[in-house]
């Protein structure tokens, strides 16, 4: 028996069932966020999103100096963002068998002050397009192409032209393989040009309480700065019993014959206040699989995703489709499954070791968190009707540079008033790097406040 | 330090007076032709600006022991080195900064070129000053006034004094913790511009990174950031032959290998005779290779000599790398063609005349760092 959200009690009371297929009349607020930060310049941001009948979503945002407007239907995405003369145009079209996404970013034209290294504000455009050809609900062929219209601009190291091809295969919920290769013409900040061939393969494997996520890549640069670089990333998550999940992660970059120059290793353990579920397993996984396959046969092109926000976006898009009534039960059942198999973390820790030999920094990072569920109960107790309420995270980072060390700390408090309304507070005490000291950069403590609403989350 | 103490070090001598005693030491009159100096044919070597051997740093008196400067400079001269590379440690114009002055001036007077590292052994004081345009100009102007100013040759047989070239920091990520990109953008680029504005003829050399695997990767990151756009010579450090092919072809710019050496001493000779040649053959554009180094406090590693304090208060070198030193000396003898050459003592009868002068102190006293300079001023 699936619980509906209305069966659960949140700090703000019971939550009505958020039907995404009910048309707005004529508009309905489906989300907003307000954020405030202090520490250095005070910055505020606000974004809001409305649904217009069952036709489209309209959204707008103001984030510091950035302003943007967005439009979304089941088939079409469009957006325009501007920040200090820098424009970003985004668009996408989702046909039954293919999809295209394009971004065109126009850099502002600014003359750098004399005596400074130019950041290359030259008025050029960067056009980045991605294409996906779908053969069946499980298989997509991917293409990408990027072009910088001002390749000679002295910008930070970047590809000025890139073409690539790849494949994404999603077999059920238990296996996902992404493989791609690309060739880039890269121009470094110093004006050196190299050709970079990159091959990458990644897989996610899930089987009953165990998930393996891995990526392996190599890139071969030819030109004056020739290099052969490898990347290996492996993440493991495993249920230990029903209420504990152990995680381990390692990411390594190396150059054969030179050294392993960047490492990120982590281990952690999380205790959950109710039975833990992987999204790829259980009812959620099955609903995702059923719904995306059904959508495919109805002429819609949706990739399977396995996170709360991705699933909300997927449900929203399909709720705008002309077949929304045929899909309504599936969409509602998916939401119910998400609620039913929600994870309620109660306590956990993570220890991480990071080092970067090129930057000359290494660090130990310790993260702990503790949470109180709603209704409030003793720590390390369990109950199936719990929902998230208050969570406190603390991060302590010891950084080592060549001739000095420093400490960074962060404290975060998150209060979930229900599944849709969340308030967050963060206090950040950043470390001062040798560069900060030498360049007389201050790093004041920072406070961030955020309040958000997301209908149907 | 009181005035009389400073005078003990010869600080009040002026450089303009240096040449006359040298002539007198030879017993020359103006018609006699002076002996030619030892030929400079053995490339470059790193020299530590040693001022005391007992580890008493800070402002312990005497600040600079003349015999230590004399000993190292004599060896550099006798071993026929063409260049020395030496750290001009900022240290808020502290003792290490002053210690470098006699080394640089004596070398240049002997016709030996000097690559001075505008750097600092520890701490971030110099980087802070170089980051701000006002203090950057002030600090670099003092550097150039003191180290790049005219130095009279020690003998008329030396046609021109050694030139002065500047290297902007040393192994910046390893010693100071700044990333290669930050080094290029925030330090090298503005320092290069300021130095060239002050002296367009000055040769400016970029910092090299450490001669290990991490240093190789950082070197490449410096190129990505455009290091060669902000210097006249790019620098490498090579302590392992496996980096030679990897460093080849990375730049079209002229290269100076500002540190290269090997341990233990049994391997020094082969490194100097074979690996230096391998570096020149393997990396197109290598113009100078500086051996690392003449002396340091680590026994049986890179140094050619040890320095031992004598009961009489003097110092004596103990050759720790006999094969290499013999090789260098034999090359000098061969290049001398059996002709008598001026001895070091002939040319530098009194090293203290190259010590910091009242003019140096007066110059520093005009800067925002005058507080430090006052410590040397007459009481």
Structural class of chain A: mainly beta
Level of helix content of chain B?
40-55%
- Ends apart, CA distance between termini of chain B: 8 Å
Shape of chain B: globular
- Give the termini distance of chain A in whole angstroms: 21 Å
Number of domains of chain B: 1
Q: Provide the spatial order of strands within the biggest beta sheet of chain B.
A: 5-4-3-2-1-8-7-6
Total beta-strand segments of chain B: 10
Helical residue percent band of chain A: 10-25%
Shape of chain A: globular
Under CATH, the homologous superfamily of chain B reads Glycosidases
Let me know the average pLDDT of chain A: 93
User: Which blocks of ≥5 consecutive residues of chain B have pLDDT under 50?
Assistant: 1-29
Task: Determine the number of helices of chain A (DSSP H or I, runs of at least 4 residues).
Answer: 4
The helix/strand series of chain B, from N terminus to C terminus, equals HHEHEHEHHEHHEHEHEHEEEHHHH
State Rg of chain A.
Answer: 24 Å
Helix-strand pattern of chain A, N to C? Answer: EEEEEEEEEEEEEEEEEEHHHEEEEEHE
CATH A-level architecture of chain B: Alpha-Beta Barrel
DSSP strand count of chain A? 24
Structural class of chain B: alpha/beta
């Amino acid at each position: 028996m699936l619980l509906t959200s209305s069966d659960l009690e949140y700090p703000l009371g019971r939550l009505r069932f958020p039907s995404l297929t009910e048309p707005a009349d004529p508009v309905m607020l489906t989300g907003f966020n307000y954020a405030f930060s202090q520490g250095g310049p005070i910055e505020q941001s606000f974004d809001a999103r409305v649904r217009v009948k069952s036709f489209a979503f309209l959204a707008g945002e103001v984030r510091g100096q950035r302003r943007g407007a967005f439009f979304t239907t089941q088939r079409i995405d469009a957006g325009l963002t501007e920040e200090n003369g820098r424009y970003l145009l985004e668009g996408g079209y989702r046909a039954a068998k293919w999809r295209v996404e394009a971004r065109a970013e126009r850099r502002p034209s600014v003359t750098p002050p004399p005596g400074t290294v130019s950041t290359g504000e030259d008025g050029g455009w960067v056009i980045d397009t991605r294409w996906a050809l779908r053969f069946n609900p499980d298989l997509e062929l991917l293409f990408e192409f990027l072009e910088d219209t001002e390749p000679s601009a002295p910008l930070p190291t970047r590809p000025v032209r890139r073409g690539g091809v790849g494949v994404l295969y999603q077999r059920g919920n238990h296996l996902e393989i992404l493989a791609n290769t690309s060739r880039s013409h890269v121009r470094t900040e110093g004006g050196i040009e190299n050709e970079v061939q990159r091959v990458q393969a990644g897989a996610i494997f899930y089987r009953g309480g165990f998930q393996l996520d891995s990526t392996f890549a190599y890139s071969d640069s030819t030109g004056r700065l020739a290099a052969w670089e490898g990347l290996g990333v492996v993440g493991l998550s495993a249920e230990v019993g029903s209420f504990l999940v152990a995680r381990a992660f390692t990411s390594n970059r190396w150059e054969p014959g030179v050294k392993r120059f960047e490492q990120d290793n982590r281990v952690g353990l999380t205790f959950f206040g109710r039975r833990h579920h992987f999204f790829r397993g259980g009812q959620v996984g099955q609903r995702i699989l059923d719904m995306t396959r059904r959508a495919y046969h109805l002429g819609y092109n949706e990739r399977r995703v396995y996170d709360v926000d991705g699933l909300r976006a997927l449900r929203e898009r399909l709720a705008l489709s002309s077949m929304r009534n045929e899909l309504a039960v599936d969409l509602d059942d998916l939401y119910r499954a998400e609620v039913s198999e929600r994870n309620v973390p109660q306590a956990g820790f993570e220890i991480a070791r990071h080092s970067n030999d090129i930057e000359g920094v290494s660090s130990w990072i310790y993260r702990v968190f503790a949470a109180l569920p709603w209704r409030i109960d003793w720590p390390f107790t369990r109950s199936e009707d719990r929902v998230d309420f208050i969570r406190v995270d603390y991060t302590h980072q010891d950084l080592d540079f060549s001739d000095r060390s420093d400490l960074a700390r962060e404290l975060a408090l998150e209060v979930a008033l229900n599944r849709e309304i969340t308030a967050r507070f963060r206090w950040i005490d950043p470390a001062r790097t040798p560069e900060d000291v030498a360049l007389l950069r201050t790093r004041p403590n920072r406070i961030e406040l955020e309040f958000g609403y997301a209908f149907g989350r | 330090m009181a005035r009389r103490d400073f005078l003990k070090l010869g600080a009040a001598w002026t450089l303009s007076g240096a040449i006359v005693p040298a002539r007198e030491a030879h017993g020359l009159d103006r018609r006699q032709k002076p002996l030619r100096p030892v030929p400079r044919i053995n490339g470059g070597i790193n020299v530590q600006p040693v001022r005391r051997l007992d580890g008493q740093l800070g402002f312990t008196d005497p600040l600079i022991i003349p015999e230590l400067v004399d000993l190292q400079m004599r060896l550099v001269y006798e071993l026929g080195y063409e260049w020395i590379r030496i750290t001009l440690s900022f240290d808020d114009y502290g003792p290490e900064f002053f210690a470098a002055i006699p080394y640089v001036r004596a070398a240049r007077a002997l016709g030996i070129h000097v690559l001075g590292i505008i750097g600092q052994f520890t701490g971030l004081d110099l980087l802070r000053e170089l980051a701000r345009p006002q203090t950057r100009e002030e600090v670099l102007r003092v550097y150039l006034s003191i180290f790049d100013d005219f130095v009279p040759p020690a003998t008329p047989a030396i046609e021109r004094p050694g030139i002065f070239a500047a290297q902007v920091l040393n192994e910046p990520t390893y010693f100071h913790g700044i990333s290669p990109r930050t080094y290029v953008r925030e330090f090298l680029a503005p320092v290069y511009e300021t130095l060239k504005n002050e002296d367009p003829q000055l040769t400016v050399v970029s910092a090299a990174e450490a001669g290990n695997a991490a240093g190789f990767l950082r070197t490449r990151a410096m190129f990505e950031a455009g290091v060669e756009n902000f210097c006249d010579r790019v620098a490498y450090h090579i302590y392992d032959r496996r980096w030679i092919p990897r460093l080849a072809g990375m730049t079209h710019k002229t290269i100076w290998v500002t540190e290269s050496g090997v341990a233990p001493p049994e391997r020094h000779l082969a490194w100097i005779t074979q690996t230096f040649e391998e570096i020149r053959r393997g990396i197109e554009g290598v113009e100078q290779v500086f051996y690392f180094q003449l002396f340091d406090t680590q026994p049986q590693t890179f140094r050619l000599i040890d320095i031992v304090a004598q009961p009489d208060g003097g110092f004596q070198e103990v050759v720790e790398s006999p094969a290499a030193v013999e090789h260098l000396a034999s090359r000098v003898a061969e290049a001398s063609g059996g002709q008598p050459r001026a001895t070091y003592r002939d040319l530098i009868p009194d090293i203290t005349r190259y010590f910091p002068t009242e003019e140096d102190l007066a110059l520093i006293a005009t800067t925002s760092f005058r507080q430090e300079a006052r410590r040397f001023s007459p009481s």
